[in-house]
Specification:
alpha/beta, Rossmann fold, GVIN1_dom, GTP binding, GTPase activity, VLIG_GTPase, VLIG-type G domain-containing protein
């Protein structure tokens, strides 16, 4: 229904087909009042159809106004931990349940509050959000599975007033990484607007003393979450957040529940465990008590819609943090990027200095003061050899710095081991980028053929046909790159282009000579403007430019994109001047 409605919005407003579908949001709102769930997050596309959901909630607000106050309860957990079953038992709803990935995305369902409870909760409806299981084996094969889970968790926790963290057995570490990213995302997304609460629910734990026995583990989990929050706050330069409770309210004493299994024995013939329903009922009473005693006023449906849109926009634009498993990995990656940027700048600065010196040597060719016995061509070949040696030396140094960095035990370098090859490839490509600024020479292809022959000479099973095909393929690929290199070189050194640029000056000189005009003053000015001034400016720029860049690259304000953005915003805030931007 939602896809049909959103597709119709692409039609002109006067189109009859679009007019026929304008009643769908109201129809869906009526279905929600009848107890049917609304798909909040499309599980196939991992996206909120904002126009459809917004129009449905707007129609829902019109139907129930002025009784439109809502509180939101969300369940979040790893796949197949009984999230939908828990909500069905707790609130008497009928979310789909089965083994595997039965819920895709997130579904919201409306429950009307009775008059006797409405005064305690100060709301008219309770919104229940059932979410897709995290860490799904079906999605684990994808490269961005961390991103999918982190986005979903951040969204639903941000929308809810209280979040039920559903955990299988007593292992709470499976949700630790995701909670760290949620907290870090909240810190990055400026002010969240409200402070969510969370309750940890451990499924299939029948031991009545489990709560007391696991107190140490719960405190250890909270301690780890506090450390992650402090690390995230340090990265975001928000030192006022020093604990997990500063962002998400959680108490290890009253915020953990241990629920026995649903069945007594093996289904389908096993009876339902009465202890499961009793414990879930106690959990429900506790949730209602927390919502009633928190003292915060419930939002109306329109406020919820506005908050959902702003939160989803923030989640969509956060493409750096969500791609990591937890905050420590993100912090370690940022540290590595900062160090690599320093090494990269040292490489570029050194090569820039070498090129400047080489240009000076070339400009002094064929001068009387040059008493060298070497010819200009021989000197050029020597410079080429020196350039290759310099490039190889710095490439080796860059790779050595990277290798040494990963041997350290500090800064959690083991967490970014998977990115080592990526940075090594960046170092190699940097050398290629510096080398590609020259022109093509026939010896390049000869060198490639020689390298292929050296690789194949130890393999006796390769026939001549394969060798020819391999050489054609490699040389064909290399030819395209050499062609681009040659075209760039020709463009920079094209005599015709240089002639066109100086055509007006040559014509003016010819006219002066033809009319016997004195050119002394004119040539003096021209010599100053075209020779002395560019030479002085070039010398100053070549010397001053690297110093300015070096100062910026070594400054804390420019070390990372985040630090730069923070410095700019802080400067704008201190100057109280936002119009100039």
């Amino acid at each position: 229904m939602g896809q049909i409605y959103e597709a119709s919005l692409s039609l002109p407003e006067t189109d009859p087909a679009r007019q026929q579908l304008q009643h769908l949001p109201k129809l869906c709102a009526e279905l929600m009042l009848a107890g049917f769930p609304l798909e909040l997050v499309d599980g196939e596309a991992s996206n909120i159809p904002l126009r459809w959901v917004t129009d449905v909630l707007s129609q829902l607000n019109d139907l129930v106004s002025p009784k439109n106050k809502i509180l939101v309860v969300t369940v979040l957990g790893v796949q197949s931990t009984g999230k939908s079953t828990l909500l069905n038992t707790m609130f008497g709803v009928q979310f789909a349940v089965s083994s595997g990935r039965c819920t895709r995305g997130a579904f919201m369902l409306l429950i009307k509050i009775d008059e006797d409870v409405r005064k305690d909760l100060n709301c008219d409806f309770m919104v229940i959000i059932d979410t897709e299981g995290l860490k799904s084996p079906e999605l684990a094969q994808l490269d961005n599975s961390h991103e999918h889970d982190n986005e979903l968790a951040t969204l639903v926790v941000g929308l809810s007033d209280i979040t039920i963290i559903n955990i299988a057995m007593e292992n709470s570490t499976e949700m630790k990484d995701i909670l760290q990213i949620v907290v870090h995302a909240f810190l990055r997304m400026k002010e969240v607007g409200k402070k969510p609460k969370c309750q940890f629910v451990h499924q299939n734990v029948s031991d009545v003393s489990a709560h007391d026995k696991n107190m140490r583990d719960r405190k250890l989990l909270l301690q780890q979450l506090n450390e992650m929050t402090q690390a995230a706050a340090k990265m975001e330069k928000k030192k006022k957040y020093s604990s997990f409770n500063d962002v998400i309210e959680y108490s290890p004493d009253t915020g953990s529940w241990y629920i026995p299994g649903l069945w007594n024995g093996n289904p389908p013939m096993a009876p339902v465990n009465a202890g499961y329903s009793e414990t879930v009922y106690e959990l429900k009473k506790n949730i209602i008590h927390i919502l009633g005693s928190c003292g915060s006023s419930a939002d109306n449906i329109l406020d919820f819609t506005k908050w959902m849109k702003s939160l989803w926009t923030a989640v969509k634009h956060e493409n750096f943090l969500f791609s990591f498993r937890n905050s420590l990995v993100a912090d370690a990656y940022m540290r590595l990027c900062t160090e690599f940027n320093k090494w990269e700048w040292e490489f570029k600065k050194e090569m820039y200095t070498w090129v400047t010196q080489a240009e000076t040597r070339i400009s002094n060719f064929s001068k009387p003061a040059d008493k060298s016995n070497k010819s200009d061509m021989r000197e050029l070949m020597l410079l080429r050899s020196e350039a290759l040696i310099e490039l190889s030396k710095w490439e080796t140094k860059l790779l050595g710095n990277l290798e040494q960095y990963f041997k350290e035990t500090e800064s959690h370098v083991d967490l970014v081991e998977g990115y080592r090859q990526e940075f090594a490839n960046s170092a190699i490509s940097l050398r290629g980028e510096m080398e590609r600024k020259g022109n093509y020479h026939d010896t390049y292809i000869e060198e490639i053929l020689k390298m292929i022959d050296e690789r194949l000479q130890n393999n006796q099973e390769v026939d001549i046909t394969f060798q020819v095909s391999l050489k054609l393929h490699i040389c064909g690929d290399a030819a395209r790159r050499f062609q681009k290199m040659h075209e760039d070189f020709i463009h920079e050194n094209d005599p015709y282009r240089c002639l066109n640029e100086n055509k007006e000056r040559f014509r003016s000189d010819f006219k002066d000579v033809f009319h016997h005009v004195d050119q002394c003053q004119k040539k003096a000015d021209e010599f100053t403007d075209r020779c002395l001034k560019p030479a002085v400016e070039g010398f100053v720029n070549r010397s001053l430019g690297p110093d300015i860049i070096g100062e910026m690259r070594t400054s804390e304000q420019f070390s990372t994109r985040m630090s730069f953005q923070y410095s700019v915003l802080l400067d704008l805030l201190s100057e109280d001047d936002f119009k100039s931007t």
